[in-house]
Amino acid sequence: MISFQNVHKSFGPKKVLQGVNLEIAKGTSMVIIGGSGTGKSVLLKSVLGLVTPETGTILVDGKDATSGDHDAFLARFGMLFQGGALFDSMPVWQNVSFRLLRGSLKRPKHEAREIAIEKLRRVGLTPDVADLFPSELSGGMQKRVGLARAIAAEPEIIFFDEPTTGLDPIMAGVINDLIREIVTEMGATAMTITHDMTSVRAIADNVAMLHDGVIQWTGPVAQMDDSGDPYLTQFISGSAEGPIEAVR
Ligand SMILES: Nc1ncnc2c1ncn2[C@@H]1O[C@H](COP(=O)(O)OP(=O)(O)OP(=O)(O)O)[C@@H](O)[C@H]1O
Ligand SMILES: [Mg+2]
Predict the structure, then answer these.
(1) CB of 37 shorter than 6 A to ligand 1
(2) pLDDT the model gives residue 220
(3) d(CA 146, CA 153)
(4) In what order do the strands lie in the sheet with 2-11?
(5) Considering only CA atoms, which residue is closest to atom 6 of ligand 1?
(6) What distance in angstroms lies between residue 39's CA and the mean position of ligand 2's atoms?
(7) Is residue 52 part of a domain?
(8) Which pLDDT belongs to residue 70?
(9) For the domain that residue 172 is a member of, what is the CATH number?
(10) Domain hosting residue 131, numbered range
(11) Whose CA is nearest to atom 2 of ligand 1?
């Protein structure tokens, strides 16, 4: 469903992606792990055209991500941004149903509101949250509103950037189960970034580790613990000793 072929992206002198190759099969859940600042968020954004790689190809469903009707292309995706990226001036329900209130996915207002309330329920939020503004929510609640927005239009492809960061362990478990359900029940293709190894084990079919601008290791989650890769092993164990330098 998604294919990265030799993708390079720099910001000024800073080389971030230095030849990323990765395949994500339709209806599977890929989890990207890797140190802070290694380019995981940049990788997701490059699929959506929010950052533009200098060289390389990104294919979605066999087609070049940068060609064709970009609105129709984006309508296939849902995305949870790492920082939430909620619209401050809109109540929660309009944030959640943002895509359903305009453009090609437009629905009548009352329907969009009902869908928003249903999606809020799926992420563990009650209907009274619908009329609050983002500034009136806790950090974890904002995260869940972002998640509800990502799934609101039932997209084919969903990107989750740090879905459980800032959530308590029980709510993180609920969100992990939800992501798993979206992939198995809705047949969606998911790409999730997380630092939470419990999440990795709960969500992933396959895992890819980004390090030094390339995919250092990728494989089924069941093979992660016996990979024999010193970088991956150090990352999983959270050890200060190993090939990854703790100071960058
Ligand atoms: N729009 C931008 N302009 C300039 N530099 C950027 C931009 N976006 C990202 N970068 C740089 O690219 C690098 C990778 O950033 P990215 O956000 O992808 O990291 P990450 O792997 O998601 O880290 P974290 O785990 O902390 O979220 C960082 O050095 C960052 O400063
Ligand atoms: Mg990030």
Answers:
(1) yes
(2) 97
(3) 13
(4) 14-24, 2-11, 55-60, 63-64
(5) 11
(6) 7
(7) yes
(8) 84
(9) 3.40.50.300
(10) 85-154
(11) 11
